[in-house]
Amino acid sequence: MLLTIKQVLTADELAKIQALIGSAAWEAGRETAGAQAAELKNNEQLAHESDSMRAIRQIVLQALDRHPTFFSATLPKRVFPPRVNRYQGTSNSFGAHVDNSIRFSPVSGQKIRTDISCTLFLADPSTYDGGELLIHDPQGARAIKLDAGDAIVYPGTTVHEVAPVTRGARLACFFWIESMVRDTTQRQMLFELDQTIQGLRNAHGDNPHSVALTGTYHNLLRMWADV
Ligand code: NI
């Protein structure tokens, strides 16, 4: 499931993050890629343990925590500490690749299975050309370029790439989620059921049917979740 989540960050949070990025030091991105992806990865990242990266990570994780759509769509068990990357000039693309299935959190040392990938866009799309996230599926590639503060979540299993940036700089925060529900189809059904229940409650208020459906949702989550 590909899902765009609008306004993960408030305007205030976005401005704070952009200011923190302005004073940060960058390093070559290929250091954190797997052997195959490293050949294709040509971008820059903020150092994981810099003060600015720590402050940005805290803002992003708090924003994710309070976002009901993010929770409903991903059912997070563990979130890889968010990182920030930049594509510009001659470090401007990341060829088609798959993400490593297991990653070690550089903060906790914990293993994280990358069920879901997330890109949170941080630059106004009018300030750069190119830089689309291309997500491949059997029908072709979907090109994703979102407003600053919006995010896309997509299955960690996909082949994807970042198209070359030909003007300006593309800034984004990226991370992975290990979900309580490992199976993509089960997770998607739970998301659709949850959204339907919210829609019914908004349209008709709480009633015995919406309560019963909420019970079904939680019983399915109990059956499928690994916590
Ligand atoms: Ni990737």
Structural class: alpha+beta
* End-to-end Cα distance: 22 Å
Q: What's the overall average pLDDT, rounded?
A: 94
Largest sheet, in brief, is:
8 strands, antiparallel
Please give the share of residues in helix. Answer: 25-40%
Parts with pLDDT < 50 across at least 5 consecutive residues: none
CATH class type of the largest domain: Mainly Beta
* SSE succession: EHEHEEHHEEEEEEEEEEEEEHH
The named CATH superfamily of the largest domain: q2cbj1_9rhob like domain
Q: Care to count the β-strands?
A: 17
What is the CATH architecture assignment of the largest domain?
A: Sandwich
Beta content comes to 25-35%
Could you tell me the radius of gyration in angstroms? 18 Å
- Which of globular, elongated, flat, extended, rod-shaped describes the shape? globular
| The number of domains | 2
| Number of helical regions | 6
CATH topology of the largest domain, by name, is Jelly Rolls
Description:
With 227 residues, this protein is α+β, with helices and mostly antiparallel strands. It folds into two domains: 3-179, Sandwich (Jelly Rolls), CATH 2.60.120; 184-224, DNA Excision Repair, Uvrb, Chain A (Irregular). The protein contains six helices and 17 strands. The chain has helices at residues 11-22, 35-38, 51-65, 68-74, 184-204, 208-224, and strands spanning 3-5, 26-28, 41-42, 44-46, 76-79, 83-87, 93-97, 102-104, 111-113, 116-121, 129-130, 133-137, 140-144, 151-155, 160-162, 165-167, 170-179. Strands 1, 2, 4, 5, 6, 10, 14 and 17 form an eight-stranded antiparallel β-sheet that branches. A five-stranded antiparallel β-sheet has the order 3-7-15-12-13. Strand 8 (102-104) and strand 9 form a beta hairpin. It binds nickel (II) ion.
